[in-house]
Design brief:
alpha/beta; TIM Barrel; Lyase, Ornithine Decarboxylase, Chain A, domain 1; 2 domains; 10 helices; globular; binds pyridoxal-5'-phosphate
């Protein structure tokens, strides 16, 4: 993130905080679209970072929304419901009925089980409206349905009001092997072609979550462009004839974010320098970090000359696991200094064990050149969530 933005943020706001530079979203989406071409739709998996959905409205085609909470966020942000794909492994009747009553058939629903199918089917029959769905194919876990069940549903599709737009598939995040994409896309292409041949069913849309990787650590060679280019080539080879939408979270959101935390204490224990920060692992998370051994993109804001030592950066939770990075070389590190963890736009703000120790939820700032700084969330104390109200 640009130094002058960080400088302003650090001078104005109390740590710990997240800052999301929403101008970088357009840059990142442009990168993705340039590599993938105009025919590939982009669906933002908002679980990666819900704070930026409004800024993505004109940049992405769809949002993957996985819970009633995420859906309410879309409503508050006034997201166009034609852009919503209501996904998620647990869909209950009242939530689905609410969405259908409010927004009719604007939303596309994913079907992850026979229960989901029946729920949507019953409503569609009762209201005599056609509801568009994607059938989620499992990759061998609790999500989606077996191929045999999808075939059965498609074979019997004429008896109801549901319009099956296509297939959804996601098998995992941070996938760094192009062969995995190749295997998955070949399998999906074959499956879609089979559905045409055997049931005269046209897959209009394949919604695929590739799990594009973000390279976080110092010792890694950044292959983001290479993988994206490879994925694009594989997509061009698909033969089933429908549209392809990529469900992406990490690769859209990660580059726009930084997490800023202050050093509140330093000590040397058994010859190892430790610094304690006012944040911790409940607020920042790098997928693939291993026992804090890997070095994430980290800036020591108060650089000064002097002695360089290898510091272990620990958070403020009372657990031995609250180590952000081990033996990181800092020069003349002091209490009061600021550390900035970059590429934290995806999952850090949502994935942490944020109620542990009843510490606060950090402030969230949005920055854009046009709107400058906006507070998207004030710091929130959590202790009242961890004890009953009298
Ligand atoms: C169904 C689905 N699609 C897409 C994504 C986004 O994955 P990523 O952040 O790796 O792009 C996820 C993440 O968990 C997911 O569950």
């Amino acid at each position: 993130m640009n130094e002058s933005i960080l400088k302003q943020a650090i001078s104005q706001y109390k740590t710990p905080f997240y800052i999301f530079n929403t101008d970088l979203l357009a840059v990142q989406i442009n990168k993705l679209r340039t590599a993938l071409g105009p025919d590939v739709e982009l669906c933002y998996a908002m679980k990666a970072n819900p704070f930026i959905i409004k800024e993505l409205q004109d940049l992405v085609d769809f949002y993957e929304v996985c819970s009633p909470g995420e859906f309410r966020i879309c409503e508050r942000a006034q997201i166009n419901m034609n852009q919503v794909v209501m996904s998620g492994v647990y869909k209950n009747q009242s939530d689905i009925e609410y969405a259908l009553n409010q927004y009719g058939n604007q939303i596309i629903y994913t079907i992850e089980s026979l229960t989901h199918w029946q729920l949507i089917e019953n409503y569609a029959l009762k209201q005599q409206i056609t509801i568009r769905v994607l059938l989620r194919l499992t990759s061998g876990n609790q999500f989606g349905m077996d191929e045999s069940l999808i075939r059965q549903i498609i074979e019997n599709r004429h008896q109801n009001f549901i319009s099956i737009d296509g297939i959804q598939f996601f098998s995992g995040t941070q996938k760094k092997s192009i062969h995995k994409y190749e295997n998955e896309l070949n399998m999906l292409d074959q499956f879609c072609c089979d559905l045409k041949k055997q049931y005269d069913f046209t897959v209009k849309k394949l919604e695929y979550g590739p799990g594009l990787p973000v390279y976080y650590f110092e010792d890694e060679t950044d292959e983001e462009e290479l993988i994206l280019g490879g994925l694009s080539q594989l997509i061009k080879k698909l033969t089933f004839g429908g549209k392809i939408a990529l469900e992406l979270g990490r690769s859209i959101a990660a580059p726009c974010g930084a997490y800023v935390t202050s050093i509140v204490d330093t000590k040397i224990n058994k010859n190892q320098p430790y610094c304690i920060v006012d944040g911790g692992i409940h607020q920042v998370n790098y997928y693939g970090q291993m026992l804090a051994m890997k070095k994430p993109p980290l800036i020591h804001w108060n650089k000064r000359s002097g002695e360089t030592r290898e510091w272990t950066v620990c958070g403020s939770l009372c657990t031995i696991n609250d180590v952000l990075v081990k033996q990181y070389p800092f020069t003349s590190l002091q209490t009061g200094d600021t550390l900035i963890f970059e590429k934290t736009g995806a999952y850090s703000v949502t994935e942490g064990i944020s109620l542990f120790l009843s510490r606060e939820l950090p402030q969230v700032l949005l920055y854009s050149e046009q709107n400058q700084f906006r507070i998207a969330r004030n710091m929130i104390l959590t202790d009242h969530l961890n004890y009953f109200h009298s």
